[in-house]
Amino acid sequence: MQYTHNFNPTISDEDIFSEIVREKEDIGYYNLPFQDTAPLKEYAKSVKQSNIVVIGIGGSTLGTYAIYKYLKHSRKLDKKLIFLETTDPIDIQSKIQSIDLQDTLFIVISKSGTTVETVSIFKYINSLVVCDKTNTVIVTENDSKLNRYAQINGMQVFEIPKNVGGRFSVFSAVGLLPLAIVGIDIDELLKGAKKLHDAFFIKKDDVQERLLKKARFLVEYKNSFNINVVFSYSSRLEGFNKWYIQLWGESLGKIDINNTRQGLTPIGIIGPIDQHSFLQLIIEGRRDKTVTVIKVENFDNDLKIPAITLEGLEELDYLNDLEFSSLIKSQADATIEAIQNLNDIPCDVITIDGVCESAIASLMYEYELLTSLCGKFMYINTYDQPGVESGKIILKKKLQS
Amino acid sequence: MQYTHNFNPTISDEDIFSEIVREKEDIGYYNLPFQDTAPLKEYAKSVKQSNIVVIGIGGSTLGTYAIYKYLKHSRKLDKKLIFLETTDPIDIQSKIQSIDLQDTLFIVISKSGTTVETVSIFKYINSLVVCDKTNTVIVTENDSKLNRYAQINGMQVFEIPKNVGGRFSVFSAVGLLPLAIVGIDIDELLKGAKKLHDAFFIKKDDVQERLLKKARFLVEYKNSFNINVVFSYSSRLEGFNKWYIQLWGESLGKIDINNTRQGLTPIGIIGPIDQHSFLQLIIEGRRDKTVTVIKVENFDNDLKIPAITLEGLEELDYLNDLEFSSLIKSQADATIEAIQNLNDIPCDVITIDGVCESAIASLMYEYELLTSLCGKFMYINTYDQPGVESGKIILKKKLQS
């Protein structure tokens, strides 16, 4: 007998882990926690401007925004961070009108160096203010055309390593440079990422086992549960949700080596707001969703519901003297209990320590690892995005004609 | 022979339409375009404060935010609108710190009158500033406990009709009161809603046929395409996307009369930002999504990419002299073409006229009609939300113990 072709069955946990260890040689994001941050901190210290405008889109802004949004009200930041990331003219105009351009540093971020949105907006900025090495810094690949532009104009460049994809670049200069400038502790960020790195690769606290199990479940049950809901109980995690959606959607929406379409659909919602919106669909709708609830253990905030009785509303006096941080945590617990009582919605809970650099970084690094693991189980290339090229070609043709 | 039980097959377009016409007698939102706005406008004119704070959650804020976000940069509004809608203490604190509470009108909105989040926040506000009839107005049902509180304190009340559900209440006082106060033309809003009402019920411009066809398609193919993506090409539509997600998810995620779980999962994304995020999943991922692209025909904005050459980036000079509004429209068209070329992703396009009251109102009324139609095809009660009650009971027990 002779055989041609093979099926590719789901591989074992050990094989997946070995493949990730092998992949770590080529894929850059894994090792970003170990970089030298001195040049970034030195540049950050030298910045005099009060407004920091990041011009970028997608992977060039989402991770930075996630961390900034999570921390900005819990840190005394003396600079304002603004993102110019869309071609919507009303959006561009309203953001620019809100700042003094003479007191602004522009950080132009594009991995390829020729992102249409980024270059369009940067050109527009050039018509409003002289952009030179005193107010413009570039983050790009070392051989991009944007890098050439920077060299010609003597502008400082921070490099995005070739093997770090945009959506995995938050712990490169892409995220660290703007965050360091506004006053976020980037060493604490990397410490948080490293904590997860070590726990996964050096096998601590069952992190490796837990993530392997979770990835295997999500992929093996992908036909039953094609939607993954992240239900974050803090408005501060809104940026994280958006970042997760890009990471998950763009990494896992692929055609696999067996030529079948893969993909898990990410949804990010915010509690308690979306208890009044999306929760009904989770509870009574079709069983096509897994749910991951993210709770914040310590809000480091003692805002309280005062012991005031509103005449007519006495029945709500049981809320009196309750801290808002306790209330939101109880709301999360009630939602978790309601979902788990149903017994047919896969649900896990991640509790992050607090509103600090290391907590959000650990969470983000964990999601990067989880994405890589799911990609391996799916036999896809987690790190490319061939599906968006066709639209770019059509756009270019439209505009050039 | 004898038979018991019947199957309930999908019903005809004519029957659905008759049922909607019958439902219009009981369900209040259909007729909101015909209300008298004089009392709302009169109250709005009397408001002296510069800051308008809406305290509410879910259906009490999402529609208002959708319209405000869409129009605020295109109208000269002299008052600022702020939403307090979550129990996240850091969110509450940072928003309150940004305004002068002595120069603020509080609009407390709760249909039931006993929404935990709303009453908690309002209690907290009471500890910061005296709330009385000079700075507080109530929007609620006529027999709620919040209404009693308002009567006791001599505060003005605007009523939410019993037969208007929270998520269908944007064209009641819930949305119209705050919008009128900040300077949005609420008569133009109702005109836009009425335009869709008339086109649907009086059969103009094929609106009835188109919506019936769309609803039938979405429901009949719900097992293949359980996810509905709204891809809005304007950052101004971010609020609309959130409102749509609540409307769709909470209305359609139900158990039907045959005791089977129904539900279509709404996703809202923003172009061109999410071309760099979610588009890859749409293009190469599993075929489990329908896509509705929303384009804005007229941005009424001539912001232009200047004819500047950046040395090194000459290849992007084809963008020179292009208006941003043309660029974003071309980006939408390129995405539509890329999706339609694939031939296996159901995709339709809605082009709204401009950044004006009537355009956004027509769009929202259309989505309300579409939701009602899908609910009819699914044999569910579109207007209740029994699935979220269990969590509320668990929360109350937790807090009272």
TrEMBL record, chains A, B:
It catalyses: alpha-D-glucose 6-phosphate = beta-D-fructose 6-phosphate. GO terms for biological process: gluconeogenesis; glucose 6-phosphate metabolic process; glycolytic process. SUPFAM superfamilies: SIS domain. Pathway: Carbohydrate degradation; glycolysis; D-glyceraldehyde 3-phosphate and glycerone phosphate from D-glucose: step 2/4. The chain crosses the membrane at residues 52-71. It is an enzyme of class 5 (isomerase). InterPro entries: G6P_Isomerase, SIS_dom_sf, SIS_PGI_1, SIS_PGI_2. The keyword Nucleotidyltransferase does not apply. Keywords: Gluconeogenesis, Glycolysis, Isomerase, Membrane, Transmembrane, Transmembrane helix. Its EC number is 5.3.1.9. GO terms for cellular component: cytosol. GO terms for molecular function: carbohydrate derivative binding; glucose-6-phosphate isomerase activity; monosaccharide binding. The keyword Zinc-finger does not apply. NCBIfam families: PRK03868.1. PANTHER family: GLUCOSE-6-PHOSPHATE ISOMERASE (PTHR11469). Belongs to the GPI family. This is Glucose-6-phosphate isomerase. It comes from Sulfurimonas paralvinellae.
